[in-house]
Design brief:
This protein is of the alpha+beta class. The chain has one domain: 60s Ribosomal Protein L30, Chain: A, CATH 3.30.1330. It is about 25% helix and about 30% strand. The protein is built from 2 helices and 4 strands; from the N terminus they run E-H-E-H-E-E. Helix 2 (about 75-85) links the parallel strand 2 and strand 3. The radius of gyration is 14 Å and the shape is globular.
């Protein structure tokens, strides 16, 4: 039986990171730390996977409809997954513990300056 865990984060413009941004390292480090802390705080309510292999799918909801490349959200999603490791939801995010994340498009948030990241973790079979 596969048990899924879903966790959703609303990310403001001040923390949103993309693979295409050219951000000063100190700004990126500050955003990464904040996202990681956010995910760790929320992750404590999730049942841990332990040593079982998990599959991650990241659904990205943009402020508006239109063309988008969900994989560009990788820096944001990476920081969130690292926070879930900090919360011990996952033992690690290396290839022996986590497949993915795979990126998908979610419906628009409809809120200017707010992106939504919904991470679905499921036991890999």
């Amino acid at each position: 039986m596969t048990r899924n865990r879903t966790i959703t984060f609303d990310i403001g413009r001040d923390l949103w990171m993309t693979a295409n941004q050219r951000t000063h390292w100190a700004v990126k480090a500050k955003r990464t730390k904040a996202l990681r802390s956010m995910a760790a705080g929320e992750g404590f309510s999730l049942e841990p996977f332990g040593s079982r292999l998990a599959r991650a799918t990241a659904y990205i909801g943009y402020p508006r409809n239109g063309r988008a490349d969900p994989a560009n959200a990788a820096p944001t999603v990476k920081a969130l997954i690292d926070g879930l490791v900090d919360a011990r939801v996952l033992d690690d995010d290396d290839h022996t513990h986590l497949l993915g994340p795979d990126y998908r498009r979610d419906p628009a948030t409809g809120i200017t300056g707010i992106w939504r990241v919904r991470i679905v973790l499921e036991e890999a079979t």
